[in-house]
Specification:
The protein is built from 5 helices and 8 strands. The chain is of the alpha+beta class. β7 and β8 form a beta hairpin. The two termini are 24 Å apart.
Length: 191
């Protein structure tokens, strides 16, 4: 994993935040608390996601980074792994990608599984630092992710980094809103 680096050199504007390796299994509850605030999740959904995160971390190439404040508090995190067409996420998005002629993106891609920043720390470049740092360490030609299919700061960030819509209005079981699947060549665009 990448060495810990202050987030501010990557344009975060938050010199008190450090982006570096995260033992996500050990800090899963803290990370999910950030995700719950950033994403508006209830306790039932957090409990389900906890098991999903821990299962993903069993993959030998899973990577996780955290953004920590000077006091050690986790204020953001990202994790991902190389895509596997047999994984649940891939089986859901594959028909949508096939319909747009983009299903080849499921091969040779690093999936950004989750990326969340505490609402009090958003719009400071922390998300940008997390996603670029994690993908810079990947030896795959591209990255894919899914995001709620609405114009949002997150979608704007992904576009600025080179992600493009591969499929829209993707419906995940039990998700109240449709998603977009986005893909970008690696390394991610800067500037």
């Amino acid at each position: 994993m990448a060495a810990a680096t202050p987030a501010s050199p990557r344009g975060s504007g938050s010199p008190d935040i450090t982006v570096g390796p995260l033992d996500l299994a050990a800090r899963v509850d803290e990370a999910l608390a950030v995700q719950a605030l950033a994403f508006g999740l209830g306790q039932d959904e957090i409990d389900v996601r906890r098991q999903i995160v821990l299962r993903h971390l069993d993959h030998p190439q899973a990577r996780a980074l955290g953004a920590t404040a000077a006091d050690g508090r986790l204020v953001g995190f990202v994790y991902g792994l190389p895509n596997d067409r047999a994984h649940w996420w891939s089986t859901v998005v594959e028909p949508y990608l096939r319909a747009t002629g983009s299903d080849d993106w499921l091969d040779g891609s690093f999936v950004i599984t989750e990326l969340h920043v505490h609402p009090d720390f958003q719009q400071r470049g922390i998300g940008r630092s997390l996603i670029t740092t994690i993908t810079d360490a990947v030896r795959l030609p591209r990255s894919i992710l899914s995001a709620i299919d609405t114009e949002s700061p997150a979608r704007g960030l992904y576009r600025a980094l080179g992600y493009q819509d591969l499929a829209r209005q993707v419906l995940f079981p039990s998700a109240p809103k449709p998603y977009a699947v986005m893909g970008a060549p690696l390394p991610l665009r800067r500037g």
